[in-house]
Amino acid sequence: MTTEETTTVRARPEPIKAVPVRHPGRWIAVAVLAVLAAMFVHVLVTNDNLQWSFMVDHMFRPPVIEGLLRGTVLMTICAMLLGVSLGIVVAIMRLSTNPILRVVAWLYTWVFRSVPRLVLLAVFGNLGILWSRIEFGVPFDTHIGQLFGIDNLQLRVFGFSSRDVLTGFVAGLLGLALSEAAYMAEIVRAGIQSVDEGQAEAASALGMSRAQILRRIVLPQAMRVIIPPTGNETIAMLKDTSLLLAVPYSIELFFQLDAVGKRTFQIFPMYVAAVLWYLFLTSILLTGQYFLERHFGKGNGRTERARIRLRSIAGEAGGGGGREGGEQ
């Protein structure tokens, strides 16, 4: 009896013929964008109404540089410092267990987020209409004197003229900073609430006070969430300084460039100069925001999470090997 041995030989698979996916829409979009870019460059180069030589000659004049430094840069820094500081306080009030503080903080954010900044600047610029003098002392002193039959009772310690205090810079600073504080309060509140409550409970169990927990545990972790919108708010504040003409405050970048354009009847070149200045300043802020986000985002990126996961896997493998060795 003979047995036939049958061997099955697996056939070699044919090479895969990979056909790249066609993306005609991409090429059409690139072509359209290239045409638009060429048209834009053509306008910049060939249109004589831009007056490039006139623009460059006037956009670096001393009044413009003074408006850039004092009205735009300095106002942005002061308004953001005051707005961020006050916003943190209002955010803590919103998260407080005290219902009065919560209501006051909610009313503050409601009012200053509802009124446009242009309107706020106009209001603060005309506060002198309400009070010609600002005085400190016992409130309602004249009314109290009338109740007791004393005419012209003055229980005021000191005072000063509102015009001496509510200058254009101060009025603009108050309008921008108070408005910014309302937005920063919501940003900080969202950042604080993004931190796991278990960490605050663990810190409280260790005997830390609420202020220490907020300063050492919560805020450092919340900065990862707070920094990106704060950077956007800083850029928006930089651009909103152009609204200071509603105060009015004349030592400001856009006001000075607009004044040059109207005085020389070359308005559009000066508007383009303003665009270039704001692009330059915003680019600096964007660079700083990038490095701040990278600093506070350490340990939260995909690479870092993958590294932590690999370390945990290696630790588990090492621990398992140790246990097996011990059992043997």
TrEMBL record:
Residues 69-289 form the ABC transmembrane type-1 domain. SUPFAM superfamilies: MetI-like. PROSITE patterns: ABC_TM1 (PS50928). It is found in: Cell membrane; Membrane. It is a multi-pass membrane protein. It comes from the Bacteria. The chain crosses the membrane at residues 27-47, 67-93, 105-131, 271-292. Keywords: Amino-acid transport, Membrane, Transmembrane, Transmembrane helix, Transport. PANTHER family: L-CYSTINE TRANSPORT SYSTEM PERMEASE PROTEIN TCYL, MEMBRANE COMPONENT OF AMINO ACID ABC TRANSPORTER. Belongs to the binding-protein-dependent transport system permease family. This is ABC transporter permease. It comes from Micromonospora qiuiae.
